[in-house]
Write a structure and sequence with these properties.
Rossmann fold; 20% helix; single chain; alpha/beta; 4-stranded mixed beta sheet; two-stranded antiparallel ribbon
Length: 114
């Protein structure tokens, strides 16, 4: 979920220590034509205490929490070198991100294949 090229490791460390990471989504490999390795999406939130969800709905205090979604096994191969996420895959990831934080009660959530 991180590399240490050009000081990226230090930047990532500072972002995590500042409690700015709201969610990380580990994606499968071969999603991008020019990059064959897996990617990871970082969702950043400046204010986890007074966040707003869909439709402006207030969210609970998520300070000190990070949602991890493991989507590495999702998607379908469209040819031997390229994978695509299906609409259902995208919906599962989005639903997990938008709905799971309402449950809460733990510091870190780890999901496998949503």
């Amino acid at each position: 979920m991180s590399s240490n090229q050009s000081g990226e490791g230090e930047i990532h460390k500072n972002i995590v220590e500042a409690d700015l990471v709201d969610c990380m989504v580990a994606l499968p490999d071969k999603l991008f034509y020019t990059v064959q390795i897996p990617a990871c999406l970082w969702f950043i939130a400046r204010d986890k205490k007074r966040g707003r969800g869909l439709g402006g709905k207030p969210l609970r205090d998520r300070s000190g929490e990070v949602l991890f979604i493991d989507a590495r096994q999702m998607g379908v191969m469209v040819d031997r070198t390229h994978r695509e996420l299906t609409e259902e895959d995208i919906r599962k990831i989005a639903d997990t991100y938008h709905n799971l934080p309402e449950i809460g009660g733990t510091e870190v959530w780890i999901l496998k294949n949503c």
